[in-house]
Amino acid sequence: MTTLSVTCVSAAGAERRTLELRALVVAGLTGRDTAAVEHHLAELAAIGVKAPARIPAYFRNTSSLITHGTAIEVLGPDTSGEVEFVLVGMPDGLWVGLGSDHTDRRVEAVAIDVSKQLCAKVVAPVLWRFDEVAEHWDSLTLKAWIDEGEGLAIYQDGLVASIRRPEELIEGYTGGAPLPVGTVMFGGTFGAIGGIRPSRRFEMELADPVLGRVIRHGYSVTTLPLA
Fold it and tell me: Which InterPro entries match (predicted)?
């Protein structure tokens, strides 16, 4: 079984834990606003991706794809990251973190589920107890920056309020049961500023302005040549 070392931050302090990964679920097209979902579908259509039959969509991927790494390797020039909040089922309840659903866009045009399986899923090594942010959840922000060769530039910037709440996403997946222990769920994202595109570096941030906390993580992308 794959394990991951995480720092769980709560009002009681910070505690280092080992998380046993049992399942990885990537939720997609999770926007609360129909217009925003249609905008993201238009972005995907622009690169040849067909909409899934179910919205929101839930894609199962191999849990071994999850990494805290600061560098990943991808095959070919058609991959990109996207910032998302991450939900984690722990023995003592639900925790929330930050991740990038890095995806192969060329393959996505053929099979979305396969495209997500082809790239590492980078997550920050810090989690917050969900109960401590639930009441002011909609004030949390997500941001991402990319480097296309001229330094970091803003790539995504928005409120988690534009995405369905964690309780709704979990219910849609489990049918009403809590997120199983050891399950990591990516919560979905919003549109990219300037359109979806690759980069050699991806930086991301989840910020809580109420409690004054920030999770930030980044990784470089090495592109392997196609045969």
Answer: DUF2848
